[in-house]
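Allow me, if you will, to draw on your knowledge of protein folds for a short while. A protein sequence and the structure tokens that stand for its backbone fold form the material at issue. I would ask you to consider whether the tokens describe a fold that such a sequence might reasonably adopt. Thank you for your consideration; the sequence and its tokens are set out here:
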Amino acid sequence: MTNYDYDVMFIGSGHANWHAALALRKAGKKVVLIEKDLIAGTCTNYGCNAKILLDGAADVLHQAAAYQGKGIAGDLKIDWSDLMKYKHQTINPLHLLLEKQFKAAGIEIIDGTAAFVDQHTVEAAGKTISAQDIIIGTGQRPSILPIPGKELMHDSRDFLDLPELPAHMTFIGAGIISLEFAMLVRAAGTQVTIIEFAETALRGFEKKYVEQILQQMRDLGIELHFKEAVQSVEQQDSRLLVKTASGLAVTTDYVVAGTGRIPNVEELNLDKVGVKFDKTGILVDDHLQTNVEHIYASGDVIAKRIPKLTPTATFESNY
């Protein structure tokens, strides 16, 4: 019988993995988490939690507006700087608290990037680490259009850490992230333009409800441009110029790339051990097992049609 360092190794420490790590440790397994970024992953540190907290202020404004003249008087406004300070106070300690919880449960944590050596072994932080079973939960990262001026664009992580709001913001792409962020900053007083390559927003959702959302956005003064292919972003003095193939030109102060996300697989050295993957993620069966025995995947890194959302990743981790 082969002796491994651990019973179960988790690569990545987000929702796709840590629920299972705690459950397996409680069941008596020897468990290790390998993480190259902040413990607890995207949602906890620079995704859902931060977005929900910031959205809370916009929700209050929306509710207050509905009660104007019906018991509520006076205007409210969002102080973005104070709101961002509150976000940092609330969100920044979370990864430390969760790391403390994991360690208290007896889970070992290794800070580093994992790369497969063989089907039971990886290298990380200058160490060689082996396990009977390995679960990959490395998630996704924003995809930036490969166009001139791409270095002038910002991703969702940048946005959620923005200290001050610009006067005008442009979102490239009309998916969930762009629309949520656009409504938030519009509530805070920023002018907004959204440019989308497809014919409409939120593809895959019920059309009549999408149209209701888009009409609400138009009523708020948000500019929507569909069937537009962004070709470049240029610096113009202190501002930016976004150009499309049709000739549309938008002068703006801040550009957010909301053009999708791609799986974090490149650094894993999956070819070394024969794990199959494609541009959408790691291929798994109905039991989340890859084509290589003892190697599994969970969460957003999986190639799948169901939504790549935190509740899905949590379900898979618990499963």
The first helix runs from residue 15 to 26. The first strand starts at residue 6 and ends at 11.
